[in-house]
Amino acid sequence: MQAEAAARRSGTDDTSSRTATDAPERAGSSNSLSSSGDAAGSGSGSDVDAERDGPQTAAPAGDVTWLFRRVLAMPPVQGLEALSLADLTKEYTGMVKEMSLCVHFHEAAAASKQANDPSGYPAASGLWQADRIEINICRFLLMMYSLYLAKRQELVQALLLVNCDSLTLLQEPDKQHHAWVASQLGLSSEQQQQIAAGFRVFKWVAGEGYLHFGAAMSAEFAPLSAAHVAYRQRLDEQERRSARISVLLRKDFLHRMLHTGYVYGCLSWYQQAKLMCLMFPYCPMPACFATVVTEAFEQAAKA
What single string gives the DSSP state of each residue in the chain? Predict the structure, then answer.
């Protein structure tokens, strides 16, 4: 399994020593996620039991921005100014390593429960698995948002295209791989519908942003002023337009972060972990994942 290969490749790195917050708190709760099982996931028993009637999504029903708001409420990761892509991929690989073990134990517990094998993995272990998955997912999202705050968006964009083993970059995301992984997650029709609906909104927002971006770029490369305007005035105008482009790019990245939180919130913690494990050595690109889910959902609706 690719997840187990990720664990082997990452060696024995101590993920507890990493820079991201190891114990993010749940929104509206003073309990640390690492303190006890009752702070895990939705707090309603093990993942194995919770998913008998379909996946239990991370975000509460009707609260599509819950996960995004939760990450925004966490203290940002500090000291990212000198972070390299190699450092970031090592951090990410450590998270995938731990989640691959959680996925393994979750699936073993589910198989034992289905076989009514009392000697198998106890379903209660799902509480620990949900804890560790939730912590690592939030660490990952917090790292992405912290890089945005540190104006290191280029690292986030690189992570979405880099092979974490070889550090080589793809020219574009592997859509076929995303489609295969999506087919392995056991998405319910409701989840597919939610992801598709959110993706349509995201595309509209992104399209509006690109309209403004295009206008700013056109102004950037158009004549700045008439020939009689002083050189200093032209430089000032160019600086203002460049600042406008920078603002639009940062707004676009923030919209993408919101969409990322939305997509992950539509999945259960287990599905999020499996998504990352099966995508390894690459990191899932939420827009590409949402694209293939939307296409599959629309094709099924036409059938």
Answer: -HHHHHHHHTTT--GGGSSS-SSPBPTT--SBTTT-GGGSTTSSS-HHHHTTTS---SSPTT-TTHHHHHHHTSPPPP--TT--HHHHHHHHHHHHHHHHHHHHHHHHHHHHHHTT-TTS--TTHHHHHHHHHHHHHHHHHHHHHHHHHTT-HHHHHHHTTB-TTT-PBPSS--HHHHHHHHHTTT--HHHHHHHHHHHHHHHHHHHHHHHHHHHHHHHHHS--S-TTS-HHHHHHHHHHHHHHHHHHHHHHHHHHHHHHHHHHHTS-HHHHHHHHHHHTTS---HHHHHHHHHHHHHHHHH-
Q: Measuring CA to CA, which residue among 262, 128, 284 is closest to residue 205?
A: 262
Q: What is the tens place of the pLDDT at every residue in 174-225?
A: 999 999 999 999 999 999 999 999 998 888 876 654 444 444 434 443 343 3
Nearest of 95, 73, 84, 105 to residue 16 by alpha carbon? 95
Tens digit of each residue's pLDDT (9 = 90 or more) over 13-26: 433 333 333 333 33
pLDDT digits (tens, 9 = 90+) for 77-136: 999 989 999 999 999 999 999 999 888 887 777 766 666 665 555 554 555 677 889 999
pLDDT of residue 231: 53
Rounded to two decimals, the pTM is 0.70
Both structure tokens of 76: 């940002």
Distances, alpha carbon 269 to alpha carbons 62, 142, 176, in Å: 17, 16, 23
